[in-house]
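Q: I'm writing up a methods section and want to include an example of the input and output format. Could you take the sequence below and give the corresponding predicted structure tokens, formatted cleanly so I can copy it straight into the document?
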Amino acid sequence: MMLNNALREYQIILGSGSPRRQAYLREMGIDFEVRTKSIPENYPHHLKGAEISEFLAQLKARAFMDGLREKDILITSDTVVWHRETSLAKPENREEAIAMLCTLSGDSHDVITSICITQKKVQRTVTETTQVRFKALDIAEIEYYVDRYKPYDKAGGYGIQEWIGLIGITQIRGSYANVVGLPTHLLYKTLMQVAGDGV
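A: Here is the clean output for your methods example:
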């Protein structure tokens, strides 16, 4: 059974303004509506790696829960770039973006995305980790990318689908879609389970 048919009794809500996540859902053939709320992405500082993305994905869901109906399925998610025991969030300015890419240059890091599937009576959170490696980037390459693409809406200060990914990433272990911002295979699997359970 195809996913859209399996979910025909449900209203799918994407709690994200991300154009990349919206595009992926459309490409997966999912009918959905977008709802957005401005939520401060603050988390307890003792959390690490996947604990951060899971906490934030659930935090985002909490803002929508009061309005959920019986057949609503809410999708929220969060992506963390985890490098040397540090979470690299979205850079606030040019200097931060350049500094992040300098840190990632010539090294590997983990891209961790958690998806929170919330219904009126049950919530499931699943997580995917992909390891990404950059070549040693020249400062001129980093500055060119930041100035041209302004990656201030992207964790870690880069988009794998953009110029820096095309010329700089030498190895990926895991899901490419996860690095873009949504592990689509994991979302598909989880939504099929939700439809099968009929919760």
